Amino acid sequence: MPDPESLKSAKAHALRYLSYRERSKWELSQYLEKKEHSHPVIQQTLNYLIELNYVNDQRFAVQWGQYKINKNKLGRNRLYLELLGKGIDKETIEGTLNTLYEDNPEMELAAQCARKKWITLEGVEEEKKKRRLVQYLQRRGFSSDIIYQSLRTVSESADIENHMMPSSTLDQD
Questions:
Q1: How far apart are CA 161 and CA 74, in angstroms?
Q2: Of 43, 69, 101, 161, which sits 20 to 30 A from 109 (CA to CA)?
Q3: How far apart, in whole angstroms, are the C-alpha atoms of residue 64 and residue 22?
Q4: Are residues 127 and 146 in the same domain?
């Protein structure tokens, strides 16, 4: 049985750490290890916080995923790796990703990212532009079929816009 003072200290550290944002059980245990708490104290603290529902990996995964999708427009692959890195088990991750990408279709997110990036690549030669866009979407965690579908959509819409623009030579008489 850990002594009451070290348990109290660990709970105080954990609650302070949780006050900033939701944390996974793994993140919290790593933090308490850095604070040099013993394993029995860490385990008892985690059990206490789980019992109070202050720590919930399922809730954390959903909140983290929603934030990353809304802010960074991440694809399924990248979000999977991030949640894995936060100590979330694979089964929880799969369920969370299925729910999140049901509400936010990955194709739409990829298309939004592609359009935004395409604009920043104005003036770059066509092949280089496409290569950079593919690499950008890969880093965002989109699958290759979604990337190439987005690339096709963006380049086709750019071609249409370029053909619809009035030529300056036509305006002159």
A1: 27
A2: 161
A3: 8
A4: yes
- Specify whether the CB–CB gap between 31 and 17 falls below 8 A: yes
Structural domain contains residue 170: no
Please name the residues in contact with 40: beta carbons below 8 A apart, sequence gap of 6 or more. Answer: 2
Same domain, 153 and 116: yes
Shared-domain flag, residues 121 and 97:
no
Compute the distance between CA of residue 93 and CA of residue 14 in angstroms, rounded to an integer.
24
- pTM of the complete model beyond 0.85: no
Helices (H) and strands (E) in the chain, counts: 10, 0
Residue 31: domain span: 4-51
User: DSSP assignment of 61-111, as one string?
Assistant: HHHHHHHHHHHH---HHHHHHHHHHTT--HHHHHHHHHHHHHHS-HHHHHH
CATH of the domain at 34: 1.10.10
- pLDDT tens, N- to C-terminus, the chain (173 residues): 678 899 999 999 999 999 999 999 999 999 999 999 999 999 999 999 999 999 999 999 999 999 999 999 999 999 999 999 999 999 999 999 999 999 889 999 999 999 999 889 888 898 999 999 999 999 999 999 999 999 888 877 766 655 554 544 444 44
Q: Are residues 95 and 76 in the same domain?
A: yes
